[in-house]
Amino acid sequence: MFKNAFEASCEVQEKERFIDITIINFNDQCLATVKNQCKNTVKQFSQQYSSTKVGHYGVGLINVRKVIEKYGGVLVTDQKNRIFTVNINIPN
């Protein structure tokens, strides 16, 4: 996720670049949010995002979601106004 956020931000004009990472513990939950500016709309097929990189198929975020769900957590993605957000909630 962090590498994806970094790479997506590098494609945006410097004055628009940002990556915001927030991690907190709240009510026996670990809550993490990663937000970054992106150049284009991220392609989404059903509940999964497709990689925009040549030779890649978007399996990174799918694997992250599988691991989080294995431990009782939830991963939710959103995209609005060219800002891509990943929210993660994992029980402590």
UniProtKB/TrEMBL annotation:
InterPro entries: HATPase_C_sf, NatK-like_C. Residues 3-91 form the Sensor histidine kinase NatK-like C-terminal domain. SUPFAM superfamilies: ATPase domain of HSP90 chaperone/DNA topoisomerase II/histidine kinase (SSF55874). It holds the Pfam family HATPase_c_5. It comes from the Bacteria. This is GHKL domain-containing protein. It comes from Eubacterium callanderi.
